[in-house]
Design goal:
elongated, 6-stranded parallel sheet, alpha/beta, 4-stranded antiparallel sheet
């Protein structure tokens, strides 16, 4: 997976913060080990899933002064099997022990995000519908989780409040109408995509008349979603959203919407179970 300059800066900062909160003014337990001792730690998957987190592991190693290195058996986005060795850390025993929890925390979280995303993506296979994440991410780890979503085969919605318009109920109320809100968005930032969230077929008609780029169907029933697809006729990109889970995402995709956004990809993520086998 490509790592942008913004993501690299985010990785550097988040790793520094994670190491600082764990190490504090010194790892008292690792200090029991001879500084000359060398060791190897093998990280193993305890369950099936999708791997994600290589750049974070490498940044931990860098910030630990290069006291250990990583040998890779998998790459980001790879499917994993329980019992599979993912990567090995080799070098100074003290440094590996100090970094172990930080390494595992990042890889478990991001692999969990990628794994859940892959499950949803597979449910959409053959429909032509794209899976999107949302801004419902863990504070301070948005870019990391959105990277993990891409590793799992999903795509990113807007990154924040700055890179696209999403005009929702309260924006519409404040602006006076959907048409007025869209017109102001086009005037202020003509280069940004404009998406409008609608709660009824009547509002869908207003958003189409205003020439929104994307229209989000908020908590529409299956019947309403089918009507929306027919009424839109390709005149705008349609996104289904609101309480969508694995039990009915396929049915929604088969209505013909272009994409489905799922907050649970990042909000309700369960870390993948991993362990490190340590040997001197």
């Amino acid at each position: 997976m490509d790592v942008s300059s913004a993501l690299r800066a985010h990785i550097e900062t988040s790793v520094a913060d994670a190491l600082a909160e764990d190490i504090g003014d010194g790892d008292v337990s690792a200090a029991l080990i001879s500084p000359a001792a060398e060791a190897r730690g093998v990280v193993v998957a305890r369950q099936d899933g999708v791997f994600c987190g290589q750049p974070w592991v490498e940044e931990v190693a860098r910030q630990m002064g290069g006291a250990f290195e990583a040998d890779w058996h998998v790459r980001d986005g790879a499917d994993l099997n329980a019992g599979q060795a993912l990567f090995e850390l080799h070098g100074q025993a003290r440094a590996i022990l100090t970094a172990e929890r930080t390494v595992l925390n990042f890889v478990q979280l991001l692999s969990g995000t990628a794994t859940r995303t892959r499950r949803f993506v597979r449910l959409l296979e053959g429909t032509g519908c794209q899976l999107l994440d949302t801004r419902k991410t863990l504070p301070g780890l948005r870019l990391a989780q959105k990277y993990a979503v891409r590793c799992g085969g999903g795509a990113n919605h807007r990154l924040g409040l700055y890179d696209a318009y999403l005009i929702k109920e309260n924006h519409i109320a404040a602006a006076g109408s959907i048409g007025a809100a869209v017109a102001r968005a086009r005037q202020r930032q003509p280069g940004l995509p404009v998406e409008v969230e609608v709660e009824s077929l009547a509002e869908l008609g207003e958003a189409l008349a205003a020439a929104a780029d994307t229209i989000m169907l908020d908590n529409f029933s299956i019947a309403e979603t089918k009507q929306a697809v027919a009424l839109t006729g390709g005149g705008a990109r349609l996104e289904a959203s609101g309480g969508i889970d694995e039990s009915h995402i396929r049915v929604i995709a088969e209505t013909g919407v272009d994409c489905i956004s799922v907050g649970a990809l990042t909000k309700d993520v369960a870390p993948l179970d991993l362990s490190m086998r340590f040997s001197l």
